[in-house]
Amino acid sequence: MTAAIMSGDGPLSLVSTSSAHLDHLPHYNGGGTPVGKFYVNQAIDPEYTPPSQPAKILFSIQDQNGNDVYNVYSMVEIYSASTGERLKAFPWTREDIGDFALYYTFQDIGNYQIVISIANDNPNGNYHNGIDPPRTILTSNLNCSCDRGVLNISVSRSFGNIFSTAVLSGIVGMIVVFGVVAALTYRSRIRSGVHLNAADKQVLKYSVMLFAIAAGIVHLAVFSEHGSLRLEYSIFLLAAGAAQLSYGIMYVLLTLANQPGSLDGPGLARVYYRKTVILNLFGLVGTSVLLGLYTYSVVLPPPLSPNNRPEDIDLGGILDKSLEVLLVIGIVYLMRWEKKKLSKELVEI
To answer: Are 312 and 207 in contact (CB under 8 A)?
Structure first.
């Protein structure tokens, strides 16, 4: 039976259900494990859980194809990883849908093990009620017509702040380094007497590079939110982010290699132009594909969608696609300028 407390409106269940998968696939204090014919994803809120603070433990029981399951019987237990003591047990409960949450306060810093038990086919639930006795072997299903899986939780006071600060510092540091290099290069070319119009185009090149890197960072920031829907979505977003970061880095390296006077001669000018065409086509085609796929996914259900509905339009998507639209415009403009520049240089040579 479901554990409940009383409220003004009647019984209030300690087990809250929802009709959607996890909001995101967590980087920390979360994961998944196969349990019999099911697969269980787990997350916790807050993700970096401190001691003595109520935490929301979220579960998403799915079939092996990532689809929702209904009317499943489950029991959840929390064990101390250091002592093996069972600290809390939530009784066997019939969940209308496999997505549900439990609430628990971890009192001490340390590691914990969450054991989720899922009953085998048993429509009436006659053999699954109350709480099973604690076990030494957590996955043992002796005297239980069920399957069990173990998930791990770590509770600490400051790890979340340290991790977030380190990641943010790395991202900001990378942008600052590229910005300083771009500024120094621009200043050097102005002092060397490079034509102002050409210098302006260099600024545009660095802007294109920053648009690409910024779009890649947005993809890396939002990829985990799609992992609980389909793991393939996260892999695709990671690949897209890595490609955009690579494009931005290669562009600035190619630009820095093109120092004044380094393209004397038609052969070198043509080689440089071919490199810019290849790189720009890579960025243009890749970004256009991403824009097209996003448009498709917010109008129609995307491929492999577990819920068969279009994606929601959110702030992250709007920011990323705005950067990509600017990136496409900048690439097209630069491709035209590079072609005119090559023609002019060949005439002068």
So the answer is: no
